[in-house]
Sequence to fold (118 residues):
Amino acid sequence: MRNFRELEVWNLGRTISINIYKVTSEMPKEEVYGLTSQMRRAAISIPSNIAEGCSRNSNKEFTRFLEIAIGSSFELETQLMISVDLDFLKTDKVEPLISEISTLQIKINAFIKSVKSF
Fold:
């Protein structure tokens, strides 16, 4: 069993989740049960799946949870782009978040390769 608190990808995912909660607080109130909720759930899913994967006994299972986490990151990236398209969020608020997410995606992919090699 791994200590998820020591993983860089978990810490980055946690930071992204916090930043998503902050930026989505600026979204229209009528979106609270729509896109806002969806974005928050996708963001929380990233570190949550990394943490849950750490509890698994095999690298294969752990890898599966890392793959789910990266899937959630792509989902979140798409939702951020749509929120700009709909004028719910400004590009200058979203671009740094997308950059953070892209960095996390690269790191999770590298981590998956590392876990698979053991």
About this structure: Residues 59-85 form the longest helix (27 residues). The chain is about 75% helix and 0% strand. The mean pLDDT is 97. Helices lie at 8-24, 35-54, 59-85, 91-116.
